[in-house]
């Protein structure tokens, strides 16, 4: 049998790589006077980022970040400083920062719904996306332009709608979600550009285009799954060009008449988006993407990690526990009743879900932001479930400290994220991780753009068997 292999170098000669970049820029989006598109803004960061990486390699390649230990090898590499992640940094004491900005700073500085003329006051996920991709706060016009750009990309292809409609209702929503995301790679601009021989230095451009397309379509994918499984929403995923992403998403789900939930969804997506790179979903997107898999395949893999009970599934487990506790202590319990129930949980060998964090040693700033939102909404303050969550945040830490088996006795984001959703009527727990999946794309996908902007290599750590480890330790 005769086979013919055509090298990619030969393919490149038949391609004008920069034509793709020009086409992508031309297809880019709504423009405003004296402002930039997101693609133009990201382009400006490329030279400085590449120079920064080259300098670090040249000056510090041999600098130790701390010795790797057997504990790192056997303990899931926890705390081992060996991964580059641009969007956010997670510090045990100071919490999460996004290009140096804390969540309260982001809430204050990033353009909000009100700024672009929509009801509500919370920062826009589109504003957070701009910050994560460029390191800069967008102007109101830039945030509005990006919002309209995403709306223009939001329509689902017919084949994806048909695929989702074939799923049995009994198939878990996260399985449906990751499958549909993977299938969207049928239209991947990165895959097409790679096959056409686009230069490595330009990989980031089609990666950005795919990432924007995917972020824009995730709400419609999630909403169609929600309609098919739970029968809520209109099943049409209509997009109103006058609305922002979170507002359209909430309308697709059938809750557009609840202004409080619309604004909560903006905050929810913004604070859940990025959480450094070491968590399972973010790390998976980076790992799979390092093989030059397109963003759809990389993020589909990330969603499968997010679906695990030790990661994104935790929020629904927390809410289940809260509702069980509410049944036990009633709608207006005393502090002592709550404390006694906490001790009962701990003495039975169970953990208090929603408390503790792999890195943080202070209250999770995401929990603080979501709880603060509840303080601004009378309908949430009337909710026994929300009130119980907030009281637990004060009563549980002393109990957990006295119990002595946790390094961080404070609530994490999962402790409070589900109670407002439940209060507003979005009470299908199996769907909560899908909401998390819509959000996490805002952090994981920008990092893929950075990975390709900087030309990061395929991730390939060295593994050892226990025999090999023992032999090494004897030397």
Automatic annotation (TrEMBL):
One annotated Gene Ontology cellular component of this protein: mitochondrial matrix
Taxonomic superkingdom: Eukaryota
Keyword Transit peptide: yes
Subcellular location field: Mitochondrion
Alphabetical list of InterPro entries matching this protein: Citrate_synth-like_lrg_a-sub, Citrate_synth-like_sm_a-sub, Citrate_synthase, Citrate_synthase_AS, Citrate_synthase_sf
Record-level Gene Ontology MF annotations: acyltransferase activity, acyl groups converted into alkyl on transfer
One of the Pfam families matching this protein, by short name: Citrate_synt
CDD domains documented for this protein: ScCit3_like
Keywords from the named record: Mitochondrion, Transferase, Transit peptide
GO biological process terms held by the UniProt record: carbohydrate metabolic process; tricarboxylic acid cycle
Residue ranges the record marks as coiled coil: none
SUPFAM superfamilies on file: Citrate synthase
Keyword rRNA-binding: no
NCBIfam families referenced in this protein's UniProt entry, alphabetically: PRK09569.1
Name the UniProt record assigns to this protein: Citrate synthase
Organism: Malassezia globosa (strain ATCC MYA-4612 / CBS 7966)
């Amino acid at each position: 049998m005769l086979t013919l292999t055509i090298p990619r170098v030969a393919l490149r000669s038949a391609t004008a790589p920069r034509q793709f970049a020009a086409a992508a820029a031309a297809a880019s989006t709504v423009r405003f006077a004296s402002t930039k598109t997101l693609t133009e803004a990201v382009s400006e960061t490329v030279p400085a980022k590449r120079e920064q990486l080259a300098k670090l390699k040249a000056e510090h390649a041999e600098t130790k970040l701390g010795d790797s230990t057997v504990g790192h090898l056997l303990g899931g590499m926890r705390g081992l400083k060996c991964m580059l992640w641009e969007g956010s940094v997670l510090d045990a004491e100071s919490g999460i920062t996004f290009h140096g900005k804390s969540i309260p700073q982001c809430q204050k500085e990033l353009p909000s719904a009100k700024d672009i003329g929509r009801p509500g006051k919370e920062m826009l996920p589109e504003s957070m996306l701009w910050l994560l991709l460029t390191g800069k706060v967008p102007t109101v016009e830039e945030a509005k332009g990006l919002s309209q750009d995403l709306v223009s990309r939001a329509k689902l292809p017919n084949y994806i709608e048909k695929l989702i409609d074939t799923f049995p209702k009994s198939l878990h929503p996260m399985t449906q979600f990751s499958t549909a995301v993977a299938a969207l790679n049928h239209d991947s601009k990165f895959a097409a550009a790679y096959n056409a021989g686009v230069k490595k230095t330009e990989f980031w451009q089609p990666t950005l285009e795919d990432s924007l397309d995917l972020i824009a379509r995730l709400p419609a994918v999630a909403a169609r799954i929600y309609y098919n499984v739970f029968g809520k929403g209109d099943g049409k995923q209509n997009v109103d060009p006058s609305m922002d992403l979170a507002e359209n998403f909430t309308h697709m789900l059938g809750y557009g008449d609840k202004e409080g939930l619309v604004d909560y969804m903006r905050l929810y997506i913004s604070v859940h988006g990025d959480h450094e790179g070491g968590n399972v979903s973010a790390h998976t997107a980076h790992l799979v993407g390092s093989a030059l898999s397109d963003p759809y395949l990389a993020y589909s893999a990330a969603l499968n990690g997010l679906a695990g009970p030790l990661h994104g599934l935790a929020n629904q487990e927390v809410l289940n526990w809260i509702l069980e506790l509410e049944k036990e202590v009633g709608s207006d319990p005393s502090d002592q009743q709550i404390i006694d129930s906490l001790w009962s949980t701990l003495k039975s060998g169970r953990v208090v879900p929603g408390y503790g964090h792999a890195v943080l040693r202070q209250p999770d700033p995401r929990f603080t932001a979501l709880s603060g939102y509840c303080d601004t909404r009378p309908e949430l303050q009337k909710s026994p479930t929300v009130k119980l969550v907030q009281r637990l945040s004060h009563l549980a830490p002393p109990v957990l400290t006295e119990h002595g088996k946790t390094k961080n006795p404070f609530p994490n984001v999962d402790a409070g994220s589900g109670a407002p959703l439940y209060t507003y009527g979005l009470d299908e727990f199996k769907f909560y991780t899908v909401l998390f999946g819509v959000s996490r794309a805002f952090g994981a996908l920008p990092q893929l753009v950075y990975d390709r902007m900087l030309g990061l290599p395929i991730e390939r750590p060295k593994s050892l068997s226990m025999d090999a480890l023992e032999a090494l330790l004897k030397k």
